[in-house]
Amino acid sequence: MIYNVYLVGVGGQGVLTIGELIAETALLDKIPVNYYPTEGMAQRGGLVKAQIRIGQEFVGPHIPEKNADLIVAMEVSEALRTTQFIKPGSDFLLWGHIWLPTASLLGKQGYPGLDTVKEKIAQAGAKLLYLDPANLPTYQGSAIPDNLYVLGAAVRNTSLGKILNVETMGKAIENRWPKAAEKNLYAFQCGFEMASD
Amino acid sequence: MAEQIVNGNEALALGALKAGVRVVTGYPGTPSTRALASLLAMNPENVHVEWSTNEKVAFEIATGASWAGLRALCTMKMSGLNVAYDSLISVAHSGIVGGLVVYVADDVGANAGMAEQDSRGFAALADLPMLEPASVKETYQLVQTAFQISEEIGSPVFIRLVTAVANSKNVMNIPPAEPPPLKPPLLIKDIQKYTKAGSAICLAQHQDLLNRLEKARHIFDEMQLNPLHLSPRSGKVGIIASGITRAYLGEAIDFLENLGLQKEDLSILEIIASNPLPLDQIQQVLNHTQSVVVFEELDPLVEREVYIQAQRCGFKGNIFGKLNGLFSKVGAYELIHFIKGLAAVCEIEVTEEVLRGFHSEELAAPRPITVCAGCPHRGTYMAINQAIRKLRLRKEEVMVTGDIGCTILGMNPPFNTIWNEISMGASIALAQGFVHAGVKTPVIATMGDSTFFHAGIPGLVNAVQHQVPLTLIIMDNGWTAMTGMQANPGTDANFQNGEGKSVDIAQIIPSLSIEHFFTIDPYNLEASTATIQNALTLPGVKVILARRECAIQAQRREGRPGNITVNADLCNLCKLCITITGCPAISITNGKLEIDTELCSRCGLCAEVCNFDAIQLEMPG
């Protein structure tokens, strides 16, 4: 069985960090994983996506349409680029961050409304879990890293938690930021606990 | 021995180290860059690793090392192979001594925005073996095989990865490689082999080359490199899958089993060596089956060979692939291709609906990529646009040719400065063509520093020789930035590997008898605009060096000194700063102009365009 995670967002949001932590967690627990990040050409502000296929040694890197067991979209408009990948009935985690492209900011082009995006996700047959950035907690006065918050929420609230071990993921976070583990684990934990309500 | 996560590029680098490579050269190019970059970072003992000026230079260095008896690796993306090819075909005919492996990465799907090219054709044209790993793990093994075959037959050998393998990360257990022993270089004088002096020599070399390829075919057959599985019963379905397509087969078969596909009816040939192709095994499949489907991305190279072999062995069945219109030559294959192909050949009905998801990407807001906050190129595009306007010309009247790398981003809004893009260094020669065509308005060519060194200099020399009136703007940010900050000849000597020295473009230009040579700081919009405006009115070849280090690199060392503030009382929300700079650090939040100080690089260009002094930049000192 292959478990597929599709990640999408904008460069600078830490989308690839989420992907790397998932891959790292699988590594620590000896689960085969193929992690295929596709980066845009710009450091920031371009489309970023990553495809993670867990559970099989030899596997094509692209997740087929209608095959993602989990989609995590870190940006509202970019979520629309992934609806074709969701396996009907599976989890779609939408982080409600809006990052307006310059042309949208200047009113030269539109930007899809949140309701439209939610509606399309529903039409694709996904189970939507929407997270509102307004509720992002703070740590020592500043906002916590939203990507780790989202990852925490995903592990608790979606099928990802059945595939990967939350403690191992905590270890992966510690390994990655040996000096800033506390802040990042806190963000991860906040996401995890937020979802439990 | 620790498990680690490596991508295809890193596995290739580690495999080459395991094979005892001594010299590694290359030029950065997505998606191949990480292979050589990871070796540079490892700094392995007894191995020379370098970014060379261009791919041809890189290949020639690797050849010299190989002719002296050492194992050498040369890395590049597909466009780079075009550059190296002149020397490559000559060396193919001469043959090699130490194992020589050429790694080429094809960007199937054109993710990085380049001509989508199938480099397998080059292996066929040069009569050189080519191996195609379909996974990260295979990459590690096959690069070692490539070195071994290269030495056994005496030809360079290609390793080809596609983006999805080069950039995929897997968990691997790779023991550290022992440093290769230092052995004295060979100096072999043999004009029959190492020159092309006369027809007799050239014809003999051509025959030798073909013999070496035949030898490779026998070795591959003996090692059973290309896995062949014939079904227990004959007369059924044949599958021929090449390169990365092998990785999707299992999933497609599982899917169709639910719809009645009989696994035991399938005969499967997996092709790892795309040159020379396993002709004998292809015939075995054809002799054993009624109809065949061929899976390969881009060109129908294998498929054409299947038609030839079908004719030779009297195969009367159907061949499914690109040539019967089932698949396209464009883009990467995904599971849907395999299901459609298998369904067609097995006569199973699968509706498109079952496979296609619910698409809504057409509703997503377009997000054209732009230059980073603080990018010096932003100032140069803005200055070009202003200079054109000050000369009372319309942008539609002034040809600005573009080149490869970050500088091409001037094609996108809000700048819309650059018109075209061909290949490394092409902008300067392309511009000359427009002048000869009779364009009377100023013609401008733009390129980056690494591009200038790579292939821009010959075009500039040509412009000087023929005194073609045009303006070349070299946007020198000190790094090969687009591919992730590699050092190029112009990079500061402190950041050159080992004993490297920096080559100063500002000293090259005057030595080419170019009278009108100017240097500008792209952060100084007014002065840059005036200089460009002036240059556009002068006769002959003009060169402007727009010089300022890449903001990302500068920040990594120096942080973000200074302060930028918006005075809301003075800001009337005219948005001119956003309209002109398109800087990703500027936004409007709750009806107020905001500058993200974590993103802002204090370039001050937004402050320079503000007519109301609403943006204040304060720099220390």
Task: Name the features.
heterodimer, A: 197 residues, alpha/beta, Pyruvate-ferredoxin Oxidoreductase, domain 3, 24% strand, B: 621 residues, Rossmann fold, 4 domains, seven-stranded mixed sheet, five-stranded mixed sheet, 23 strands
How would you characterize this protein structure?
The complex is a heterodimer of chains A (197) and B (621). Chain A is of the alpha/beta class and 197 residues long. Chain A has a single domain, classed as Pyruvate-ferredoxin Oxidoreductase, domain 3 (3-Layer(aba) Sandwich). Helices cover 35% and strands 24% of the residues of chain A. In chain A, strands 2-3-1-4-5-6 form a six-stranded mixed sheet, with helices on both faces. Chain A starts with a strand and ends with a helix. The mean pLDDT of chain A is 93. Chain B has 621 residues and is an alpha/beta fold. Chain B folds into four domains: 220 residues, Rossmann fold (3-Layer(aba) Sandwich), CATH 3.40.50; 128 residues, Rossmann fold, CATH 3.40.50; 176 residues, 3-Layer(aba) Sandwich (Rossmann fold), CATH 3.40.50.970; 59 residues, 2-Layer Sandwich (Alpha-Beta Plaits), CATH 3.30.70. Chain B has 22 helices and 23 strands. In chain B, the strands form six sheets. In chain B, strands 3-2-4-5-7-6-12 form a seven-stranded mixed sheet, sandwiched between helices. In chain B, helix 4 links the parallel strand 4 and strand 5. Chains A and B meet through helix 1, strand 2, helix 2 and helix 3 of A and helix 7 and strand 8 of B.
- Structurally, the number of domains of chain A stands at 1
3D shape of chain B: globular
CATH topology of chain A: Pyruvate-ferredoxin Oxidoreductase, domain 3
Number of strands of chain B: 23
The separation of the N and C termini of chain A measures 31 Å
For the largest beta-sheet of chain A, the strand count, sense and barrel status come to: 6 strands, mixed
CATH superfamily of the largest domain in chain B: Thiamin diphosphate (ThDP)-binding fold, Pyr/PP domains
Largest sheet data of chain B: 7 strands, mixed
Strand content of chain A is: 15-25%
